[in-house]
Amino acid sequence: MPQNHDDVHYISSDDGSQTINSRPQGFQAQYSTLDSSSVNCVYPAHSSTSSQSRSGSPLSQQASHSDHAYGSSPSVSCVTQVPSWTLQELENVMFGPDSDIGSPDSSMLPGTALHEINWRELLGIKSGDLRQLLIACGKAVDENACYMDALMSELRKMVSVSGEPMQRLGAYMLEGLIARLSSTGHALYKSLKCKEPVATSSELMSYMHLLYDICPFFKFGYMSANGAIADAVKGENFIHIIDFQIAQGSQWMTMIQALASRPGRRPYLRITGIDDSNSAHARGGELDIVGQRLQSIAHKCGLPFEFNAVPAASHEVMYEHLCIRPGEAIVVNFAYQLHHTPDESVGIENHRDRILRMVKSLSPRVVTLVEQEANTNTAPFFLRYLETLDYYTAMFEAIDVARPRDDKKRISAEQHCVARDIVNLIACEGAERIERHEPFGKWRARLAMAGFRPYPLSLVVNRTIKTLLDSYHSCYRLEERDGVLYLGWKNRKLVVSSAWC
Asked: What domain count does the chain have?
Protein backbone atom coordinates (compact mmCIF):
# COMPACT_ATOMS: atom_id res chain seq x y z
CA MET A 1 0.00 0.00 0.00
CA PRO A 2 1.59 3.31 -1.05
CA GLN A 3 1.87 6.42 1.03
CA ASN A 4 0.69 8.83 -1.66
CA HIS A 5 -1.96 9.05 -4.35
CA ASP A 6 -2.50 11.05 -7.50
CA ASP A 7 -4.59 14.17 -7.37
CA VAL A 8 -8.31 13.77 -7.79
CA HIS A 9 -9.56 16.07 -10.51
CA TYR A 10 -12.99 17.66 -10.48
CA ILE A 11 -14.09 18.52 -14.01
CA SER A 12 -16.80 21.10 -14.51
CA SER A 13 -19.54 20.23 -16.97
CA ASP A 14 -21.90 22.53 -18.83
CA ASP A 15 -24.52 22.34 -16.07
CA GLY A 16 -22.03 23.45 -13.44
CA SER A 17 -21.67 20.02 -11.83
CA GLN A 18 -18.33 18.51 -11.00
CA THR A 19 -17.20 14.94 -11.41
CA ILE A 20 -14.10 13.19 -10.19
CA ASN A 21 -11.71 12.00 -12.84
CA SER A 22 -8.67 10.27 -11.39
CA ARG A 23 -7.44 7.21 -9.55
CA PRO A 24 -5.09 6.53 -6.66
CA GLN A 25 -1.52 5.54 -7.23
CA GLY A 26 -0.89 1.91 -7.97
CA PHE A 27 -1.47 -0.24 -4.95
CA GLN A 28 -1.29 -3.93 -4.18
CA ALA A 29 -4.50 -5.62 -3.07
CA GLN A 30 -5.27 -9.20 -2.07
CA TYR A 31 -8.50 -11.10 -2.60
CA SER A 32 -8.96 -14.18 -0.43
CA THR A 33 -11.59 -16.89 -0.75
CA LEU A 34 -13.02 -18.80 2.18
CA ASP A 35 -10.55 -21.61 1.53
CA SER A 36 -7.67 -19.15 1.96
CA SER A 37 -6.50 -19.26 -1.65
CA SER A 38 -5.56 -15.83 -2.88
CA VAL A 39 -4.38 -13.80 -5.79
CA ASN A 40 -2.31 -10.65 -5.74
CA CYS A 41 -3.09 -7.93 -8.26
CA VAL A 42 -0.88 -4.90 -8.77
CA TYR A 43 -2.49 -1.93 -10.45
CA PRO A 44 -0.06 0.46 -12.10
CA ALA A 45 -0.34 4.16 -11.42
CA HIS A 46 -2.52 6.08 -13.81
CA SER A 47 -3.05 9.81 -14.11
CA SER A 48 -5.92 11.30 -16.03
CA THR A 49 -5.48 14.70 -17.57
CA SER A 50 -7.85 17.26 -18.94
CA SER A 51 -7.54 20.83 -20.06
CA GLN A 52 -10.60 21.54 -17.92
CA SER A 53 -9.33 19.90 -14.73
CA ARG A 54 -7.62 21.52 -11.79
CA SER A 55 -5.10 19.75 -9.62
CA GLY A 56 -6.56 18.27 -6.48
CA SER A 57 -10.10 17.61 -5.29
CA PRO A 58 -11.75 20.08 -2.92
CA LEU A 59 -10.41 17.98 -0.06
CA SER A 60 -7.09 16.58 -1.21
CA GLN A 61 -6.03 19.90 -2.64
CA GLN A 62 -6.58 21.57 0.72
CA ALA A 63 -4.64 18.85 2.51
CA SER A 64 -1.57 19.70 0.49
CA HIS A 65 -1.41 23.06 2.24
CA SER A 66 -1.07 21.71 5.80
CA ASP A 67 0.68 19.29 7.82
CA HIS A 68 -25.90 8.25 15.44
CA ALA A 69 -31.08 2.13 16.84
CA TYR A 70 -31.54 2.96 20.47
CA GLY A 71 -29.15 1.35 22.94
CA SER A 72 -27.76 -1.18 20.49
CA SER A 73 -25.58 -1.54 17.46
CA PRO A 74 -27.27 -0.49 14.23
CA SER A 75 -28.69 -3.30 12.16
CA VAL A 76 -27.04 -3.82 8.83
CA SER A 77 -29.93 -5.89 7.49
CA CYS A 78 -31.57 -2.78 6.04
CA VAL A 79 -28.51 -2.06 3.90
CA THR A 80 -27.89 -3.77 0.58
CA GLN A 81 -25.23 -6.43 1.00
CA VAL A 82 -22.56 -7.36 -1.52
CA PRO A 83 -22.77 -11.09 -2.33
CA SER A 84 -19.83 -13.44 -2.12
CA TRP A 85 -18.28 -14.96 -5.21
CA THR A 86 -15.58 -17.45 -6.05
CA LEU A 87 -12.06 -16.53 -7.00
CA GLN A 88 -12.36 -18.26 -10.38
CA GLU A 89 -15.52 -16.30 -11.24
CA LEU A 90 -13.78 -13.07 -10.36
CA GLU A 91 -10.71 -13.93 -12.43
CA ASN A 92 -12.84 -14.87 -15.43
CA VAL A 93 -14.80 -11.63 -15.32
CA MET A 94 -11.83 -9.37 -14.75
CA PHE A 95 -9.14 -11.00 -16.87
CA GLY A 96 -10.88 -13.54 -19.09
CA PRO A 97 -10.94 -17.35 -18.67
CA ASP A 98 -7.68 -17.86 -20.54
CA SER A 99 -5.64 -15.12 -18.91
CA ASP A 100 -2.45 -15.77 -17.00
CA ILE A 101 -2.85 -14.07 -13.61
CA GLY A 102 0.86 -14.08 -13.03
CA SER A 103 1.84 -12.30 -16.24
CA PRO A 104 2.25 -8.53 -16.05
CA ASP A 105 0.84 -7.87 -19.51
CA SER A 106 -1.76 -5.34 -20.56
CA SER A 107 -4.65 -7.68 -19.73
CA MET A 108 -4.12 -6.76 -16.07
CA LEU A 109 -4.75 -3.08 -16.65
CA PRO A 110 -8.08 -2.03 -15.12
CA GLY A 111 -10.74 -1.67 -17.77
CA THR A 112 -9.00 -3.63 -20.54
CA ALA A 113 -10.71 -6.96 -19.80
CA LEU A 114 -13.34 -5.85 -17.32
CA HIS A 115 -16.83 -6.19 -18.78
CA GLU A 116 -19.12 -3.77 -16.94
CA ILE A 117 -22.32 -5.79 -17.42
CA ASN A 118 -20.64 -8.95 -16.13
CA TRP A 119 -19.09 -7.45 -13.01
CA ARG A 120 -22.24 -5.52 -12.19
CA GLU A 121 -24.22 -8.78 -12.42
CA LEU A 122 -21.62 -10.63 -10.39
CA LEU A 123 -21.64 -8.02 -7.62
CA GLY A 124 -25.40 -7.55 -7.73
CA ILE A 125 -25.15 -3.85 -8.62
CA LYS A 126 -27.89 -2.36 -10.76
CA SER A 127 -26.79 0.14 -13.38
CA GLY A 128 -26.92 3.65 -11.97
CA ASP A 129 -27.37 2.49 -8.36
CA LEU A 130 -24.88 4.74 -6.61
CA ARG A 131 -25.71 3.48 -3.12
CA GLN A 132 -24.98 -0.13 -4.07
CA LEU A 133 -21.75 0.93 -5.72
CA LEU A 134 -20.67 2.85 -2.62
CA ILE A 135 -21.33 -0.22 -0.49
CA ALA A 136 -19.40 -2.43 -2.90
CA CYS A 137 -16.43 -0.04 -2.83
CA GLY A 138 -16.38 -0.03 0.96
CA LYS A 139 -16.50 -3.82 1.08
CA ALA A 140 -13.73 -4.07 -1.49
CA VAL A 141 -11.47 -1.74 0.48
CA ASP A 142 -12.30 -3.60 3.69
CA GLU A 143 -11.26 -6.91 2.11
CA ASN A 144 -8.30 -5.39 0.26
CA ALA A 145 -9.77 -6.94 -2.87
CA CYS A 146 -8.01 -6.68 -6.21
CA TYR A 147 -11.17 -5.43 -7.95
CA MET A 148 -11.51 -2.31 -5.77
CA ASP A 149 -9.69 -0.05 -8.23
CA ALA A 150 -12.18 -0.92 -10.96
CA LEU A 151 -15.10 -0.17 -8.64
CA MET A 152 -13.62 3.12 -7.51
CA SER A 153 -12.98 4.14 -11.12
CA GLU A 154 -16.66 3.55 -11.82
CA LEU A 155 -17.61 5.45 -8.66
CA ARG A 156 -15.65 8.49 -9.79
CA LYS A 157 -17.92 8.81 -12.82
CA MET A 158 -21.07 8.97 -10.68
CA VAL A 159 -20.27 11.43 -7.89
CA SER A 160 -20.41 15.23 -7.81
CA VAL A 161 -20.07 17.87 -5.10
CA SER A 162 -22.92 19.82 -6.73
CA GLY A 163 -25.19 16.87 -7.53
CA GLU A 164 -27.95 15.05 -5.69
CA PRO A 165 -27.44 14.25 -1.99
CA MET A 166 -26.10 10.75 -2.68
CA GLN A 167 -23.73 12.09 -5.34
CA ARG A 168 -22.33 14.70 -2.96
CA LEU A 169 -21.97 12.23 -0.12
CA GLY A 170 -20.40 9.77 -2.53
CA ALA A 171 -17.75 12.31 -3.52
CA TYR A 172 -16.61 12.70 0.08
CA MET A 173 -16.83 8.98 0.87
CA LEU A 174 -14.67 8.31 -2.18
CA GLU A 175 -12.23 10.88 -0.89
CA GLY A 176 -12.19 9.05 2.43
CA LEU A 177 -11.51 5.70 0.73
CA ILE A 178 -8.64 7.17 -1.27
CA ALA A 179 -7.20 8.77 1.86
CA ARG A 180 -7.51 5.44 3.70
CA LEU A 181 -5.64 3.59 0.97
CA SER A 182 -2.91 6.22 0.83
CA SER A 183 -2.71 6.77 4.62
CA THR A 184 -3.39 10.51 4.29
CA GLY A 185 -6.64 10.66 6.27
CA HIS A 186 -5.26 12.35 9.38
CA ALA A 187 -3.50 15.12 7.45
CA LEU A 188 -6.63 15.72 5.39
CA TYR A 189 -8.82 15.90 8.51
CA LYS A 190 -6.45 18.37 10.16
CA SER A 191 -6.36 20.57 7.07
CA LEU A 192 -10.16 20.76 7.02
CA LYS A 193 -10.49 21.34 10.77
CA CYS A 194 -10.18 25.09 10.66
CA LYS A 195 -6.57 25.42 9.60
CA GLU A 196 -5.06 28.11 7.42
CA PRO A 197 -4.69 28.58 4.50
CA VAL A 198 -7.74 26.42 3.64
CA ALA A 199 -10.09 29.31 4.44
CA THR A 200 -10.01 32.53 6.39
CA SER A 201 -11.61 32.63 9.82
CA SER A 202 -14.43 34.82 8.49
CA GLU A 203 -15.09 32.30 5.71
CA LEU A 204 -15.19 29.41 8.16
CA MET A 205 -17.53 31.38 10.40
CA SER A 206 -19.84 32.01 7.45
CA TYR A 207 -19.86 28.29 6.57
CA MET A 208 -20.73 27.29 10.14
CA HIS A 209 -23.41 29.98 10.37
CA LEU A 210 -24.90 28.73 7.11
CA LEU A 211 -25.29 25.21 8.48
CA TYR A 212 -26.58 26.64 11.77
CA ASP A 213 -29.29 28.53 9.88
CA ILE A 214 -30.41 25.97 7.31
CA CYS A 215 -30.46 22.91 9.60
CA PRO A 216 -32.00 22.81 13.10
CA PHE A 217 -29.46 20.40 14.61
CA PHE A 218 -27.37 22.95 16.50
CA LYS A 219 -30.36 25.04 17.57
CA PHE A 220 -32.08 21.88 18.79
CA GLY A 221 -29.06 20.94 20.88
CA TYR A 222 -28.46 24.37 22.35
CA MET A 223 -32.12 25.14 23.08
CA SER A 224 -32.85 21.79 24.72
CA ALA A 225 -29.70 21.97 26.85
CA ASN A 226 -30.38 25.57 27.87
CA GLY A 227 -33.94 24.66 28.81
CA ALA A 228 -32.71 21.96 31.18
CA ILE A 229 -30.08 24.30 32.64
CA ALA A 230 -32.55 27.15 33.21
CA ASP A 231 -34.87 24.76 35.03
CA ALA A 232 -32.07 23.35 37.21
CA VAL A 233 -30.70 26.72 38.41
CA LYS A 234 -33.98 28.43 39.31
CA GLY A 235 -33.45 30.61 42.37
CA GLU A 236 -29.67 30.11 42.42
CA ASN A 237 -27.57 33.22 43.07
CA PHE A 238 -24.16 31.86 42.03
CA ILE A 239 -24.11 29.82 38.83
CA HIS A 240 -21.06 28.18 37.27
CA ILE A 241 -21.45 26.75 33.76
CA ILE A 242 -18.64 24.47 32.57
CA ASP A 243 -18.71 24.05 28.79
CA PHE A 244 -16.41 21.32 27.51
CA GLN A 245 -16.37 22.73 23.97
CA ILE A 246 -17.36 26.36 24.01
CA ALA A 247 -16.38 27.11 20.38
CA GLN A 248 -17.81 30.58 19.64
CA GLY A 249 -19.79 30.75 22.88
CA SER A 250 -23.02 31.23 20.90
CA GLN A 251 -25.01 28.90 23.15
CA TRP A 252 -24.63 31.21 26.14
CA MET A 253 -25.73 34.52 24.63
CA THR A 254 -29.43 33.75 25.09
CA MET A 255 -28.71 32.19 28.50
CA ILE A 256 -27.13 35.43 29.71
CA GLN A 257 -30.15 37.39 28.51
CA ALA A 258 -32.56 34.94 30.16
CA LEU A 259 -30.75 35.06 33.52
CA ALA A 260 -30.60 38.85 33.40
CA SER A 261 -34.37 39.04 32.88
CA ARG A 262 -35.18 36.89 35.92
CA PRO A 263 -37.35 38.66 38.49
CA GLY A 264 -35.62 39.67 41.70
CA ARG A 265 -31.90 39.58 42.26
CA ARG A 266 -29.79 38.81 39.23
CA PRO A 267 -27.42 35.87 39.74
CA TYR A 268 -23.64 35.96 39.44
CA LEU A 269 -22.63 33.90 36.41
CA ARG A 270 -19.29 32.23 35.79
CA ILE A 271 -18.57 30.35 32.60
CA THR A 272 -15.58 28.06 32.22
CA GLY A 273 -14.92 27.67 28.51
CA ILE A 274 -12.88 24.66 27.42
CA ASP A 275 -11.60 24.23 23.88
CA ASP A 276 -8.40 23.14 22.18
CA SER A 277 -6.25 25.13 19.81
CA ASN A 278 -7.84 23.59 16.69
CA SER A 279 -10.80 25.97 17.02
CA ALA A 280 -8.68 29.12 17.33
CA HIS A 281 -8.57 29.82 13.59
CA ALA A 282 -12.35 29.49 13.22
CA ARG A 283 -12.84 31.87 16.14
CA GLY A 284 -10.31 34.31 14.80
CA GLY A 285 -8.26 34.01 17.98
CA GLU A 286 -7.90 32.33 21.35
CA LEU A 287 -10.57 31.76 24.02
CA ASP A 288 -10.18 35.30 25.35
CA ILE A 289 -12.20 36.48 22.34
CA VAL A 290 -15.14 34.38 23.51
CA GLY A 291 -14.81 35.74 27.04
CA GLN A 292 -14.77 39.32 25.81
CA ARG A 293 -17.83 38.74 23.63
CA LEU A 294 -19.83 37.19 26.48
CA GLN A 295 -18.62 39.83 28.93
CA SER A 296 -19.88 42.55 26.61
CA ILE A 297 -23.34 40.96 26.38
CA ALA A 298 -23.50 40.44 30.15
CA HIS A 299 -22.49 44.06 30.76
CA LYS A 300 -25.26 45.34 28.49
CA CYS A 301 -27.76 43.13 30.33
CA GLY A 302 -26.49 44.18 33.75
CA LEU A 303 -25.53 40.62 34.71
CA PRO A 304 -22.48 40.04 36.94
CA PHE A 305 -20.19 37.84 34.85
CA GLU A 306 -16.82 36.13 34.91
CA PHE A 307 -15.08 33.99 32.29
CA ASN A 308 -12.50 31.28 32.93
CA ALA A 309 -10.64 30.10 29.83
CA VAL A 310 -9.22 26.57 29.70
CA PRO A 311 -7.28 26.11 26.43
CA ALA A 312 -7.10 22.32 26.44
CA ALA A 313 -8.59 19.27 24.78
CA SER A 314 -11.33 17.58 26.79
CA HIS A 315 -9.19 14.57 27.71
CA GLU A 316 -6.56 16.91 29.16
CA VAL A 317 -8.93 18.62 31.61
CA MET A 318 -8.28 18.08 35.30
CA TYR A 319 -10.20 19.16 38.40
CA GLU A 320 -7.83 22.04 39.12
CA HIS A 321 -8.56 23.62 35.71
CA LEU A 322 -12.19 24.22 36.69
CA CYS A 323 -11.58 26.61 39.61
CA ILE A 324 -14.53 25.34 41.64
CA ARG A 325 -15.76 27.64 44.42
CA PRO A 326 -17.94 26.80 47.43
CA GLY A 327 -21.63 27.64 47.12
CA GLU A 328 -21.79 27.56 43.33
CA ALA A 329 -24.61 25.84 41.46
CA ILE A 330 -22.54 23.89 38.94
CA VAL A 331 -23.77 23.04 35.47
CA VAL A 332 -21.78 20.98 32.94
CA ASN A 333 -22.48 21.07 29.22
CA PHE A 334 -21.38 18.45 26.67
CA ALA A 335 -22.75 19.68 23.33
CA TYR A 336 -21.50 17.62 20.37
CA GLN A 337 -18.22 17.09 22.21
CA LEU A 338 -17.97 13.93 24.29
CA HIS A 339 -17.62 11.67 21.24
CA HIS A 340 -14.28 13.40 20.59
CA THR A 341 -12.95 12.26 23.98
CA PRO A 342 -11.03 8.98 23.61
CA ASP A 343 -12.14 5.93 25.58
CA GLU A 344 -10.77 2.48 26.39
CA SER A 345 -10.84 1.43 22.74
CA VAL A 346 -8.20 4.03 21.85
CA GLY A 347 -5.64 3.65 24.61
CA ILE A 348 -4.99 2.38 28.09
CA GLU A 349 -6.51 5.53 29.62
CA ASN A 350 -10.30 5.75 29.41
CA HIS A 351 -10.67 9.54 29.41
CA ARG A 352 -14.33 9.39 28.38
CA ASP A 353 -15.36 7.68 31.61
CA ARG A 354 -12.75 9.53 33.67
CA ILE A 355 -14.23 12.89 32.67
CA LEU A 356 -17.74 11.72 33.57
CA ARG A 357 -16.58 10.52 37.01
CA MET A 358 -14.77 13.80 37.60
CA VAL A 359 -17.88 15.77 36.64
CA LYS A 360 -20.00 13.66 38.99
CA SER A 361 -17.62 14.49 41.84
CA LEU A 362 -18.55 18.17 41.37
CA SER A 363 -22.16 17.40 42.43
CA PRO A 364 -23.59 19.36 39.49
CA ARG A 365 -27.19 20.56 39.43
CA VAL A 366 -27.45 19.21 35.90
CA VAL A 367 -25.29 17.79 33.12
CA THR A 368 -26.50 18.23 29.54
CA LEU A 369 -25.48 15.83 26.77
CA VAL A 370 -26.15 16.44 23.08
CA GLU A 371 -24.74 13.87 20.68
CA GLN A 372 -25.16 12.53 17.18
CA GLU A 373 -27.11 9.28 17.27
CA ALA A 374 -24.66 7.02 15.50
CA ASN A 375 -22.54 3.97 16.27
CA THR A 376 -19.02 4.52 14.95
CA ASN A 377 -16.78 4.25 18.01
CA THR A 378 -15.74 0.60 18.17
CA ALA A 379 -17.44 -0.70 15.02
CA PRO A 380 -15.05 -2.42 12.56
CA PHE A 381 -14.37 -0.54 9.34
CA PHE A 382 -17.09 -1.90 7.04
CA LEU A 383 -19.89 -1.58 9.62
CA ARG A 384 -18.65 1.92 10.42
CA TYR A 385 -18.61 2.69 6.71
CA LEU A 386 -22.24 1.54 6.35
CA GLU A 387 -23.26 3.59 9.38
CA THR A 388 -21.55 6.65 7.91
CA LEU A 389 -23.37 6.12 4.61
CA ASP A 390 -26.75 5.77 6.34
CA TYR A 391 -26.28 8.68 8.74
CA TYR A 392 -24.93 11.20 6.28
CA THR A 393 -27.43 10.26 3.58
CA ALA A 394 -30.10 11.70 5.88
CA MET A 395 -27.99 14.75 6.68
CA PHE A 396 -27.23 15.55 3.03
CA GLU A 397 -30.92 15.15 2.16
CA ALA A 398 -31.77 17.61 4.94
CA ILE A 399 -29.25 20.13 3.62
CA ASP A 400 -30.44 19.58 0.05
CA VAL A 401 -33.98 20.87 0.67
CA ALA A 402 -32.64 24.10 2.18
CA ARG A 403 -30.17 25.34 -0.44
CA PRO A 404 -29.74 25.05 -4.24
CA ARG A 405 -27.38 22.31 -5.37
CA ASP A 406 -25.09 24.73 -7.20
CA ASP A 407 -24.85 27.10 -4.22
CA LYS A 408 -21.13 27.68 -3.75
CA LYS A 409 -21.51 28.53 -0.06
CA ARG A 410 -23.36 25.27 0.55
CA ILE A 411 -20.64 23.34 -1.25
CA SER A 412 -17.97 25.06 0.84
CA ALA A 413 -19.94 24.50 4.06
CA GLU A 414 -20.24 20.78 3.32
CA GLN A 415 -16.55 20.53 2.47
CA HIS A 416 -15.28 22.34 5.56
CA CYS A 417 -17.86 21.37 8.19
CA VAL A 418 -19.21 17.95 7.14
CA ALA A 419 -16.76 16.28 4.77
CA ARG A 420 -13.92 16.43 7.29
CA ASP A 421 -15.90 14.19 9.67
CA ILE A 422 -16.73 11.74 6.87
CA VAL A 423 -13.08 11.51 5.87
CA ASN A 424 -12.01 10.96 9.47
CA LEU A 425 -14.59 8.20 9.98
CA ILE A 426 -13.54 6.34 6.84
CA ALA A 427 -9.83 7.02 6.50
CA CYS A 428 -8.51 7.00 10.06
CA GLU A 429 -7.95 4.41 12.77
CA GLY A 430 -6.62 4.41 16.32
CA ALA A 431 -5.83 7.73 17.96
CA GLU A 432 -6.07 9.50 14.60
CA ARG A 433 -9.81 8.77 14.39
CA ILE A 434 -11.38 11.63 16.33
CA GLU A 435 -15.02 11.07 15.32
CA ARG A 436 -16.16 8.29 17.68
CA HIS A 437 -19.94 8.46 18.10
CA GLU A 438 -21.94 6.14 20.31
CA PRO A 439 -25.69 5.42 20.35
CA PHE A 440 -27.64 6.85 23.27
CA GLY A 441 -27.91 3.46 24.95
CA LYS A 442 -24.14 3.41 25.36
CA TRP A 443 -24.04 6.96 26.72
CA ARG A 444 -26.80 6.06 29.16
CA ALA A 445 -24.74 3.12 30.42
CA ARG A 446 -21.61 5.24 30.82
CA LEU A 447 -23.48 7.94 32.74
CA ALA A 448 -25.15 5.36 34.98
CA MET A 449 -21.79 3.76 35.77
CA ALA A 450 -20.47 7.20 36.73
CA GLY A 451 -23.35 7.60 39.21
CA PHE A 452 -25.72 9.82 37.23
CA ARG A 453 -29.48 9.50 37.01
CA PRO A 454 -31.76 10.96 34.31
CA TYR A 455 -33.02 14.53 34.59
CA PRO A 456 -36.03 14.46 32.22
CA LEU A 457 -36.38 17.38 29.86
CA SER A 458 -39.53 19.36 30.62
CA LEU A 459 -42.66 19.74 28.51
CA VAL A 460 -41.72 23.38 28.04
CA VAL A 461 -38.50 22.32 26.31
CA ASN A 462 -40.45 19.87 24.15
CA ARG A 463 -42.92 22.56 23.08
CA THR A 464 -40.11 25.02 22.37
CA ILE A 465 -38.37 22.56 20.04
CA LYS A 466 -41.65 21.76 18.27
CA THR A 467 -42.15 25.48 17.64
CA LEU A 468 -38.61 25.69 16.28
CA LEU A 469 -39.24 22.86 13.82
CA ASP A 470 -42.35 24.59 12.45
CA SER A 471 -40.01 26.80 10.42
CA TYR A 472 -38.17 23.83 8.87
CA HIS A 473 -39.01 21.07 6.40
CA SER A 474 -41.81 18.66 7.33
CA CYS A 475 -39.46 15.66 7.05
CA TYR A 476 -37.80 16.56 10.35
CA ARG A 477 -39.07 14.34 13.16
CA LEU A 478 -39.08 15.05 16.91
CA GLU A 479 -39.54 12.17 19.33
CA GLU A 480 -39.65 12.24 23.12
CA ARG A 481 -38.87 9.06 25.03
CA ASP A 482 -38.49 8.94 28.82
CA GLY A 483 -37.54 12.60 29.02
CA VAL A 484 -35.01 12.32 26.19
CA LEU A 485 -35.47 14.17 22.89
CA TYR A 486 -34.52 12.76 19.48
CA LEU A 487 -34.33 14.85 16.33
CA GLY A 488 -34.30 13.00 13.04
CA TRP A 489 -34.83 13.23 9.30
CA LYS A 490 -37.61 10.95 8.06
CA ASN A 491 -36.95 7.59 9.76
CA ARG A 492 -33.33 8.24 10.76
CA LYS A 493 -32.58 9.65 14.23
CA LEU A 494 -29.69 12.09 13.93
CA VAL A 495 -29.31 13.93 17.25
CA VAL A 496 -30.28 13.05 20.82
CA SER A 497 -30.48 15.48 23.75
CA SER A 498 -30.62 14.41 27.39
CA ALA A 499 -29.94 15.77 30.88
CA TRP A 500 -28.52 14.11 34.01
CA CYS A 501 -27.92 14.86 37.66
From this structure: 1
